[in-house]
UniProtKB/TrEMBL annotation:
Molecular function in Gene Ontology: transmembrane transporter activity
Topology term for the membrane: Multi-pass membrane protein
Organism encoding this protein: Cnuibacter physcomitrellae
Subcellular location: Cell membrane
Pfam families found in the cross-reference section: MFS_1
Protein name according to UniProt: MFS transporter
Length: 481
């Protein structure tokens, strides 16, 4: 990517070149950065199984409990692009540490919550802090590993972390809630965050001073508002439906603000997101693929959790343990993906992984209401893990690999935004499809378990469609190895 923001005086603002490595222990530093990213992804799903206990203790009904999830996703998805640009301007390490500090403080407040208002405020602070640390962390990874071979290995680990965090959320949420209580799903972040805060300053050097560019405040305000309105509209679909005035109003606001953002960016001398970045075919293809993979993945884990408990009658802990084969396959494949990329190229690996993911989802859609885990679910779970592991690695690498250091934060913000918005979009669409199918089957007199299974079957098929659309998006990418 060759487009760089202009400073107030017309000069180009970009970080000064590093004449020494950002870290002499870069693989250790990568592990600590990945640990922080793991917490960010984990917190989007770990609270799901704890919600019934939260509702009982804090007196929250079903609608209020849905906001425990939404209060995290709204600021996270809405502030990611701004967070990436702030990291580019003020320093990636500085913004990363600030984000981790806020995340730890918010997690402590969430665990100590004695009212629904306190919990929701803490969750919003968690989301805003995650929007600071996530793009800054990915930017640091790309700077720690400038060579193509090492960066591929590093991004393989990064992609695996993103997938494992979502899968592990269900497992850890069940274990911690059953053993300690719902507060533990928040308190677990605190010691891990403290370790990150203690080690990163010793492992990663400070960003070199650079000429600061003027921040595009109108662009930041409109894109943040558009993303928040979009995520809010998608969350409202799940709670009140497509035709509700809240959904329609938020959707219209998102469209108007997005159009205003495009106009502002075209006229700005120092845009928040230079629209020319999307001429980079790999960045555009990687983000579109991640949008669709995120949509398929979030809907998948939501449906699996409900299917295991409501249809197959597994308890919370057992439902979590069923995710282990999927997570294990994801980890193994993420480790071997760099070798595959070297042999057949990044584009071919991404497309192949999405076909594998789609195949696993179609297989899972055939599971009956009395499914046996080993016979009906284990096989497709492993196939899905293989597809997700390779897809996350290659989509992330495609989106950030050809980006200048001065725009690394922006690229990190874009790929994280794609994943979050895709997840909200996929869950809203596919959950609505599943609900409609379940209602239609119940109207014909089908048993509750059979009706739920039929709805989830359509959801899994829809997720497979998302994966196939992602493979089409990857066609536009340049072939790289």
């Amino acid at each position: 990517m060759n487009v760089k923001p202009a400073a107030a005086d017309g000069s180009v603002a970009r970080p000064a070149a590093q004449d020494s490595p950002r870290s002499t222990h870069r693989w250790f530093a990568l592990g600590i950065l990945a640990l922080a990213e793991f917490l960010v992804v984990l917190d989007a799903s770990i609270v799901n199984i704890a919600l019934p206990e939260v509702g009982t203790q804090l007196g929250m009904d079903t609608v209020a409990l849905a906001w425990v999830i939404t209060a995290y996703v709204l600021p996270f998805g809405g502030l990611l692009l701004l967070g990436g640009r702030l990291a580019d301007r003020y320093g990636h390490r500085r913004l990363f540490l600030l984000g981790v500090l806020g995340f730890v403080a918010a997690s402590m407040l969430a665990g100590l919550s004695v009212s629904s208002g306190m919990l929701l405020a803490a969750r919003a602070l968690q989301g805003a802090s995650a929007a600071l640390l996530a793009p800054a962390a990915l930017a640091l990874v790309t700077q720690l590993f400038p060579s193509a071979a090492d960066r591929t290995k590093a991004l393989s680990l990064w992609g695996a972390v993103a997938g494992i965090g979502s899968a592990a959320g269900v497992l850890l949420g069940g274990v911690l809630t059953a053993a300690i209580g719902w507060q533990a799903v928040f308190f677990v972040n605190v010691p891990v965050g403290v370790v990150v805060l203690a080690l990163i300053p010793a492992l990663v050097t400070r960003d070199r001073a650079s000429t600061p560019s003027r921040l595009d405040y109108p662009g930041a305000a409109t894109i943040t508002g558009a993303l928040v309105a979009m995520v809010g509209a998608l969350s409202a679909v799940e709670q009140v439906g497509f035709a509700h005035p809240i959904t329609i109003g938020l959707g219209a606001a998102a469209i108007v603000l997005a159009l205003a953002f495009v106009l502002i960016e075209r006229r700005s001398s120092n845009p928040l997101v230079p629209l020319s970045v999307f001429r980079n075919r790999n960045l555009a293809s990687g983000n579109l693929a991640m949008l669709l993979v995120g949509g398929a993945m979030v809907a998948l884990f939501f449906a699996l959790s409900v299917y295991m408990q409501a249809v197959l009658h597994y308890d919370a802990l057992a439902a979590g343990l069923t995710q282990l084969p999927l997570a294990g396959a994801l980890v193994i494949v993420a480790g071997v993906t760099p070798g595959i990329v070297r042999r057949i190229g990044l584009k071919a690996t991404l497309m192949g992984s999405l076909f594998v993911l789609a195949g696993g989802l179609v297989w899972l859609a055939a599971s009956p209401s009395d499914a046996d885990f080993v016979v009906d679910i284990l096989g497709p779970s492993i196939l899905i893990g293989i597809g997700l592991g390779a897809a996350f690695v290659t989509a992330t690498q495609l989106a950030v690999d050809d980006v200048d250091g001065g725009e690394a934060g922006l690229a990190g913000g874009l790929i994280n935004t794609s994943q979050q918005i895709g997840g909200a979009l996929g869950l809203a669409i596919l959950a609505s499809v599943a609900t409609a199918r379940t209602g239609a089957l119940e109207a014909t007199g089908a048993a509750s378990a059979d009706a739920l299974t039929g709805g989830f079957s359509w959801l899994f098929l829809g997720a497979a469609g998302f994966a196939l659309l992602g493979s089409i998006a990857a066609l536009r990418a340049r072939t790289t190895r």
